[in-house]
Design brief:
The protein is of the alpha/beta class. It has one domain (2-202): Rossmann fold, CATH 3.40.50. The chain is 47% helix and 10% strand. It is built from 8 helices and 4 strands. The protein has helices at 13-21, 36-50, 70-75, 82-98, 125-133, 147-154, 160-174, 187-202, and strands at 2-5, 27-28, 57-63, 105-111. It has a 4-stranded parallel beta sheet with strand order 2-1-3-4, covered by helices on one side. Strand 1, helix 1 and strand 2 form a beta-alpha-beta unit. The longest helix is centred in the middle third of the chain and has 17 residues, at 82-98. The protein is globular, with a radius of gyration of 17 Å.
């Protein structure tokens, strides 16, 4: 069994269609607007229950940017830049899932359009889309673009480097053909993601 969770990039009709076109059967519980906290909570619940009914499960979790949920920010303590805190938040979400992972689940972590602060063999959807379209991706480490929200709600003023990182990442997304409001919409990008999933399943 293949289980998938993520945000709107993963809850896309084009993505679901690409999975079907590549004969990949999956339970995709991604939802538009999901925060990492919601992805984490739903994933833990789903895998706990699905593991009782399937002998083996491969789970691919596409994290989104940190701090969509205020709860994620409130869980992080200590000084640091916006991106430093976002990195810590992503580690926290991963740790929460790993701590209750059933023994018959093989989990793979990826992301929609942000980087992950640990090594992974599954590139982000954005990285796969850039490669499919021959677009050179910027080399910054971007874990969130929620600078305005964090400043408004928590009074934290992002530094200039944080803002440069965010602008560079959004500029990269805007280079993808047919993207709309910083979301993938094209089959070339999602077919590349589907092929990466098939490679992961084939081991």
């Amino acid at each position: 069994m293949l289980y998938i969770n993520g945000c709107s990039w993963t809850d896309s009709f084009t993505f679901r269609d690409s999975l079907m076109n590549n004969d990949i059967l999956a339970i995709n519980n991604a939802a538009s607007g999901n925060s990492n906290f919601q992805i984490c909570r739903q994933t833990k619940y789903d895998l706990k229950n699905f593991s009782k009914h399937f002998d083996k499960i491969t789970a691919i979790i596409f994290f989104t940017e940190a701090f969509r949920s205020e709860y994620e920010y409130k869980m992080i303590k200590g000084p640091g830049s916006l991106q430093d805190l976002a990195s810590k938040s992503l580690h926290q979400m991963k740790k929460a899932i790993d701590s209750s992972l059933p023994n018959n689940v093989n989990i793979i972590y990826s992301s929609s359009f942000v980087d992950l602060p640990w090594e992974t063999n599954f590139p982000s959807m954005l990285t796969l889309a850039c490669k499919a379209h021959g677009i050179i991706q910027e080399k910054t480490q971007c874990y969130t673009t929620k600078a305005i929200k964090v400043q408004r709600v928590h009074g934290v003023k992002p530094n200039l480097n944080d803002l440069d990182v965010i602008i560079d990442r959004l500029n990269t997304i805007e280079k993808i053909p047919k993207q709309l409001d910083h979301h993938l919409k094209d089959y070339i990008s999602y077919t590349a993601v589907a092929k990466q999933i098939q490679e992961a399943l084939n081991g």
